[in-house]
Amino acid sequence: MSRHARDDNVPLNADATSSRDLALEVENLRTVFHTEHEQIHAVDGISFNIRRGETVGLVGESGSGKSVTARSILGLIESPGEIDPASAIRFEGDNITEYTESEYESIRGDGIAMVFQDPLSTLNPVYTVGNQIKEALSLHQDLRGTAATERAIELLEEVGIPDAARRVTEYPHQFSGGMRQRAVIAMALACAPEVLICDEPTTALDVTIQAQIIDLLMDIQAERDLSILFITHDMGVIAEVADRVNVMYAGEIVESAPVEPLFAEPKHPYTRGLLRSIPSTQTSGDRLETIKGEVPTPNEPASSCRFAPRCPKSFEECSEVAPIPTAVGDDPDHDAACLLYPESMTTDEAVAHHRPADDGGEQ
Amino acid sequence: MGRWEYFLKRVLLMVPIVFLGTTVTFLILRVGPIDPAAAIIGPSGDTEAYAAIRDSLGLDQPLWIQYAEFMRDLLTLQLGESWVVVRGQSVWELVGVYGPRTLWLGFWSILIPIFVGLPLGFYAGLNPNTLADYIASFGGIVWRAMPNFWLAVIFVSVLTQSDALFGFSWGDWLVETQIVTPPDLSGLWEPTQFLGALKAILPAALVLGSASMGNEMRIGRTAVLETKNANYVEMAKAKGVPGRLVVWKHMFRNALIPLVPVITGEAFLLLGGSVLVETVFAINGLGYLFFQATINGDVPLVGSLMFLFILLSVGINILQDFLYTVIDPRVGYDGGA
Ligand code: SF4
To answer: Which residues of A touch B231 (CB under 8 A)?
Structure first.
């Protein structure tokens, strides 16, 4: 059940950081959805961790498995979805994938909280914003009545909602988009979680509001020493918020690195493609490039590079060998899963390095 | 605009609707094919008596005067007298006799589906694609597909012979009741009287409510399935709200919103459907009275009953707006944010 049983699958960010500094550790997470005809490996053996007070980015196109990762961490995967029992998600010393539903309820909101993409549909339309914040307070902090109302007003003030004492009694539809997302953040912060998962928190908002919400999240993080998992498809946002970045493609993490080396020297062809598709990195006059095609649905165990059909650098072996995360570049934390690496080897040697050899590796 | 302002507006809107409905009723009665004088006199009457009656009824006055008097009488709730069905009897008295039976029937045929159909539908929605869901959904479809008149006849014949069929006499069970007779509605506050009246109306209410029960179940199931996948439900779970509270607090209230018009809409249908069921079960309620008045050309009785039906529909409409206003805070909100 632990990493030792699966030594063949080296966690991407395996480094010297002692586990006491880790707020959250995801090891070899696999989330499978069983449909009538096939199995969708929505998250296919990913590993990463978040240190205390750090923001880790999870970036990729839609369909890459980012949101399923977030929901897997919070134990929100429901039938026909299932987390492979060999997966581990460590939070406060426990493997929370083994938690019962009621154990999970006690850490949701309290230990790990989440901010969702669309603030309007995230708030229940028939209850006041205050009611929904107080609900969290009464569940985890046993605050009720006036004390809870006062705390809710404080929280709304903390996330920058003016006239909070009045707004606490208003309904979500009376809030503007940006204010709604602030209210959702207030709700997520209500019980002082250690880890905050932000799933595309700015995607549904205007550009100016986006910047405000990001500033707010960064301020809150600094104040509370919060660990954030920031999920987005937007490389521009990632550059602003993240300390370390994991690039996800078709259920796998294809590259992971601290933010500077990732943007300065992206190694994986997919990451390079993503970076070329953000406007700010373009020298003026160039046409904005996009990666053609769509993320494939991972409906069988990886036996090739899933990016191969779209990869400008793909070669023959790419459709025969599934690449494994490999150290690339100067930074020890910089890994990529691509048959072109390690750079020091010839292509044949590199392919041999990735090929599941005789060590009993999977598939 | 606040929710309650909006509600008030809706209520005020009902005034012109009552006016319009009553006017249409007048047109149908006076300009239509029914000749009240002929109806009173019957086929054998002679022309002189006929003319006298027309005169005394004011039927030869200009139409607009007739209209003004008609409207004045109804809007001041002077419902007049029956001319044919029970000649000389005041309409209010007739309504006093026939009305409670219909209300009693209507009340239970709305209530039973709500307390049977809704919970079944919600349960099926919470446990989709399980055996219980299939049984409930299939049963609901079959139940809804059975026509009222057929179901009513089957009920009557099975219940009257229940002794011979099952060795169990429905008529003697708990309290003695008749099966095909108007329910005795006196002394309802006494438990045995109440039970008797309820038992007497139960088969008819089940028949009349059968379609509603099926509908409410089906739509309740869909509504729960929809709210189940709503983002606010996921958010509630992500906050650590226990499963049971997610269902009761976050799902059900939202699931009720699409059900409000379904339930009130069925209340309208019951107005029409009750004539048939009342006839089979011999309940002799308003539906029966209206039917008699219509085939006998009892113009003032028909007009007054129509007016009462209009008031009832408007009342149901107001109730619907009231329920919306209570359940959904977005009511009357005209965008902006
Ligand atoms: S393994 Fe091959 S196809 Fe995959 S990213 Fe590398 S070069 Fe491209």
So the answer is: 116, 118, 121-122
Tell me whether A118 touches chain B (CB under 8 Å): yes
Chain B positions touching A135 (Cβ under 8 A) are: 236, 239, 241, 249
Q: Under CATH, which architecture does the B98-295 domain have?
A: Orthogonal Bundle (1.10)
The token pair that represents A195 in the structure block: 């880890």
Could you tell me the CA-to-CA distances from A133 to A54, A165, A191, A351, B17 in Å, in that order?
Answer: 25, 13, 10, 53, 43
Is the Cβ pair A140, B329 closer than 8 Å? Answer: no
Question: In 3-state terms, what secondary structure has residue A31?
Answer: strand
Altogether, the residues listed in chain A come to a count of 363
Nearest residue to B36 via CA among B71, B76, B3, B83: B83
Size of chain B in residues? 337
User: Residue B77: CB partners within 8 Å, gap ≥ 6?
Assistant: none
Written as one string, the DSSP assignment of B12-71 is HHHHHHHHHHHHHHHHHHHHSS--HHHHHH-TT--HHHHHHHHHHTTTTS-HHHHHHHHH
> Cβ(B240)–Cβ(A109) under 8 Å?
yes
Interface mutation target, options A34, A35, A105, chain B, most CBs of B under 10 Å: A105
d(CA B69, CA B67) in angstroms, rounded, equals 5
0.90 exceeded by pTM: no
**Strands ordered across the beta sheet of A252-258:** A112-115, A195-199, A227-232, A55-59, A244-249, A252-258, A335-336, A326-327
- A339 touches ligand 1 (CB under 6 Å): yes
Q: What are phi and psi of B227, to 5 degrees?
A: -65, -25
Q: Is A247 helix (H, G, I), strand (E, B) or coil?
A: strand
Interface of B with A (CB under 8 A): 230-232, 234-243, 249-250, 253-254, 257, 327-330, 333, 337
Mutate to test the pocket of ligand 1, among A326, A338, A343, A347 (most ligand atoms within 8 A of CB): A338
Contact A8, A362 (CB under 8 A): yes
Task: Give B262 to chain A, closest Cα distance, Å.
Answer: 20
Residue A273 Cβ < 6 Å to ligand 1:
no
For the Cβ of A305 lying below 6 angstroms from any atom of ligand 1, the answer is yes
Q: Structural domain boundaries of chain B?
A: 1-85+296-337, 98-295
| Burial (CB count within 10 angstroms: exposed 0-12, middle 13-18, buried 19+), residue A141 | middle
Q: What are phi and psi of B335, to 5 degrees?
A: 65, -160
Which residue in chain B is spatially nearest to A179 when comparing CA positions?
A: B337
Digits of tens for pLDDT over chain B (337 positions)? 678 888 898 899 889 999 899 998 888 887 777 777 777 777 666 777 777 777 777 777 788 888 888 888 888 888 888 877 777 888 888 888 888 888 888 888 888 888 988 999 999 999 888 888 888 888 888 887 888 778 888 888 888 777 777 767 777 776 777 777 777 777 777 888 888 888 888 888 888 888 788 888 989 999 999 998 889 999 999 988 988 889 999 999 999 988 888 888 887 767 666 777 888 888 888 888 888 888 888 888 888 888 988 888 898 889 888 988 888 888 876 644 3
Distance CA B239, CA B217 (A): 30
